[in-house]
Design brief:
CATH class: Alpha Beta
Structural class: alpha/beta
Strand content: 5-15%
Helix content: 40-55%
CATH superfamily: Glycogen Phosphorylase B
Number of domains: 1
Number of strands: 6
Largest sheet: 6 strands, parallel
Distance between the termini: 16 Å
Order of helices and strands: EHEHEHEHEHEHHH
Radius of gyration: 18 Å
CATH topology: Rossmann fold
CATH architecture: 3-Layer(aba) Sandwich
Number of helices: 8
Length: about 210
């Protein structure tokens, strides 16, 4: 088996710099369609805990299509039950230029997924220089390596504590920004194409 990783479009990929009108700076960003395994419920719970630990008002911005509508509805109910309606924003999908702007202006990026074969959006966030926090399971340690800060996706308190540490420690943010960009630069479409071609050539050389 030969793993071939996707490439990541660099920071210069989008020219737009205008945020959607409902977005309030500063904000915490997460980009994933609504599936149960994306673990948005744990992120919302952690955001509630985070708000108790910081004096700065942050908005939580979730960008993703409601693919599993029951999950989308459950997250909306959870937001309401925790009294977070005025502090959480769900965007069902945005143009690429707007997504680029969302990455650029985010205070941190959080990816709490429980199961991934790759995980593109954390690398996109890292390419934009956003301090990135990701779950410590599945493919995330392999893909993000030392470019992100890891947390237990089953532990809302751990996620909240790690997020608070990043938000309140400038040296940690700067370090994550630097290491994240360096890591994201390893994932290019040129490398993806080259590795794919090499696999084809190797198979052809075996005569079958």
């Amino acid at each position: 088996m030969t793993p071939v990783h996707h490439g990541v479009t660099p920071d210069s990929g989008g020219d737009g710099d205008s945020l959607p009108p409902a977005v309030k700076v500063p904000y915490i960003l997460s980009v994933s369609s609504f599936y149960r395994y994306k673990n948005y419920a744990r992120l919302v719970e952690a955001f509630g805990l985070l708000r108790e630990k910081v004096s700065q008002e942050y908005q939580l911005v979730l960008v993703g299509y409601p693919v599993e509508r029951d999950v989308h509805e459950a997250v909306n109910r959870q937001i309401a039950s925790l009294g977070l309606r005025d502090h959480c924003l769900i965007l069902p999908g945005v143009p690429y230029d707007s997504l680029s702007a969302l990455y650029r202006h985010a205070s941190i990026y959080v990816f709490p997924s429980l199961c991934e074969s790759f995980g593109l959006t954390p690398l996109e966030a890292m390419a934009f220089g956003v301090p990135t926090l990701v779950s410590n399971i599945s493919a995330m340690p392999e893909i993000c390596a030392n470019g992100a800060l890891f947390f237990d996706p089953y532990d809302s308190a751990d996620l909240a504590d790690k997020a608070v540490a990043v938000l309140q420690t400038s040296s940690l943010r700067e370090d994550l920004t630097k290491r994240g960009r360096e890591r994201a630069r390893r994932f290019t479409w040129e490398a993806c194409a080259r590795k794919t071609l090499n696999v084809f050539l190797e198979v052809m050389s075996r005569g079958r």
